[in-house]
Amino acid sequence: MNYTVQQIAEITNAQVIGDKNLLIKNIAFDSRIIYSTKNAAFIAINTQKNSGEKFIESAVDRGITVIISEHQYPQFENITWIIVKNSVEFLQKLAQHHFENSNLKSVGITGSNGKTILKEWLYQCLWNEFPTVKSPKSFNSQIGLPLSLLQINESHQLGIFEVGISMPNEMDVLENIFHPQIGLLTHIGTAHAANFYSEEDLIDEKIKLFKDSKVIIFNGDNILVNRKIREIYSSKKLISYGFNQHNDVTFKNNISKNEDVVVTYFDEEITFPVHQRDEATLTNALALITVLKELGISNDKIVDKINALKAVEMRLEAIEGIKNNIVINDSFNLDLDSLKTALQFLNEYKKSKKSLVLTDIIGVNTNSKELYEEVSELVNEQHFDNVFLIGEEITKFKDLFKSKTFTFIDTQELIDNKYLIEIENQIILLKGARKFEIEKLKDLLELRKHDTVLEVNLNAILHNINYHKSLLKPSTKMMAMVKANAYGLGSYEISEFLQHHHINYLGVAYADEGVELRKKGITTPIVVMNPEQHSYDAIIQYNLEPEIYSFRVLELFYEAVQKSGYDKKYPIHIKLETGMHRLGFKEYELDQLSQSLEYKNLKVQSIFSHLSSADVPSEKEFTLKQLEIFEKNSGYLIKNLGYQPLRHILNSSGITNYSSHHYDMVRIGIGMLGESANADIQKQLQSTVSFKTVISQISLVENGESVGYSRKYKTDHLTKIATIPVGYADGIPRLIGNQIGNVGINKTLAPIVGNICMDMMMIKVDDIPNVKEGDTVTVFNAKPSLKEFAEYCKTITYEVLTSISPRVKRIYIKD
Ligand SMILES: *Cc1c(COP(=O)(O)O)cnc(C)c1O
């Protein structure tokens, strides 16, 4: 976009206070990821749950001078205000105007599953055919779609936008601002179906998007979808795809066989090799082909493009590097959009020094001077300490970059040069076109090299937190339990992420865990659940808040506060015993407790208790009793205190099962990691943790031979055995050997055979087609799931996670 403040005000009927002639090219809605303040405005978005206005201050701190808001805050000086009636409606109106005045060919994707992957695939196939704009990620459509549309500029010829809805009537608003020429309806599944009366209602709502479309491409395997679209949109060009042979676009041959697949597109045939044969991937491939055909791409090109598609790794990985660096690896593709996204991602890390490796941008048709001017502007805003440029094109524009800049013809030259590996204590962003293979730099800079990793998906954690939040009143606070190294996943990394997403409290078990977080820069309030006697000084020094569960702890902690010279009321959290019989004050102690607290220089920040069986449906009666005791005893204590501390009692399963007892705060743990004992809730959560390794060796073992220690497995035919480099020292219990447990390869389970060794184990891979050395093995994630793995181990998911040895490398991914 490119509007003056005055134009924006005219389009949206807003009021301007300040400079009407300023030019706005970019609207930021998240004050934390403002990557450029030039020609940018910040919009304070108010939703039912949140007021964006509290972030105006941080946007101003970052240098923003134009604010779009429902209210003016005169305390900020030299700001131009665009005052609007309703921030969300403002965005929608501006986006509608912007879209309708662009000359863009547009694809609108809706459906329950596969939207994001199809959008990314289409983008990968099309961005070097036409200048293309797309939705950056899959955020909330009511706000995300308008923000995406506002990214359209004059040079774009094609726009690919994802439109998700979860509630009835949402599509009316969205269709009003965005009417795609080509409508694409992916699979309709049960996601969000709960908010609709019936599947039919859900379909009706989704296909409203296509009211003004010329062409509708849809998955015709769903009979109801097929019927509805043909009924409602009979006058449009309709193309159905799917496995079912009645579709216009389908597979000719048996796709389960290990050969090239043949797609019939009306009366044409297109043959291409596939690498993944699962149903979802193949269905998406049909949709992709259909859209590419519709956009006039030739069959030969389509085959080439599909061959070039890797499984979409559209994620940025953050890796622990050598010399205390953090390495952000985004070596998959490079274009302006993805450069922006990567720069935003960088801003989320608090390292003061940073370096960038950047290559030529390949395959865009624009004038290269203009292109690299824009690139250098984006890069200069970030004030990198070093910039390493690779490639013949970009190095010509070296002088545009204001940092200390080095130039190289190719990646190997940079590796040979050794500048890069001298960097210490920085965040290093690797951003390059695929051709340059800068992932080689990642190998060079990565700290430990292990094939075995525990991969933690931070996006999934956020999804799970937001799901639980959606069950709470907006005013209810949330504490995230990050005890025991955040259930084994990495206490600092998880806490840093949660802090960034405004979690209200963190909970740790021991003071040391809290001290470590403070030392690394976590400032969110931290409660220590088991404050040990020797740790009180550290607690006070590092501003941690202890759980006080007995008179002994109360007296000793109070003494420590007095000795420390702390002169305000020190925050503490009172734990009540309500039936768990672990820690806490009992009912008969409450009078004495109130008296003790009265004359002490302590502030009761919260009163809480813990449910023993919130996840056990058959113990509902007991749980209700616990809740009743809590209500009564906390109420009694509050009356005596004369002020209102926060009250909280629910853990993750409590949040979902006892929704009328959220009180002022809830304490989430396993739920944020995507686990629930309740099957319906489980469906709404995303799996967060993936424990992966690779096959070290495959052997054909003759009939009658034995495998592993003590000869516990004997073959009864010529058997294919794979050895993988994880064992009981990595946290895999030895008791799941001997065919009790399984691991997953290519989504198929393979049994563990023989005894598990300290660092290795053997699995039987007879039934896995095409298995080869170096293939990825899933210890747990999707198949087997964490829950299934815990069942093999005869334990609960919590113990599985906390048992994974520290030597297994943790890596963190975010979109
Ligand atoms: C660990 C813990 C929680 C979180 O429990 P989940 O079952 O993982 O949600 C909540 N409260 C307290 C006191 C805890 O120790």
From TrEMBL:
Modified residues (N6-(pyridoxal phosphate)lysine): 483
Pfam families, per database record: Ala_racemase_C, Ala_racemase_N, Mur_ligase_M
GO molecular function terms listed in the Swiss-Prot or TrEMBL record: ligase activity
Matches recorded under Gene3D superfamilies: Alanine racemase (3.20.20.10), Lyase, Ornithine Decarboxylase, Chain A, domain 1 (2.40.37.10), Mur ligase, C-terminal domain (3.90.190.20), Mur-like, catalytic domain (3.40.1190.10), MurE/MurF, N-terminal domain (3.40.1390.10)
Entry function: Catalyzes the interconversion of L-alanine and D-alanine. May also act on other amino acids.
Family, per entry: Belongs to the alanine racemase family.
Protein name per its UniProtKB record: Alanine racemase
Species, as recorded: Chryseobacterium kimseyorum
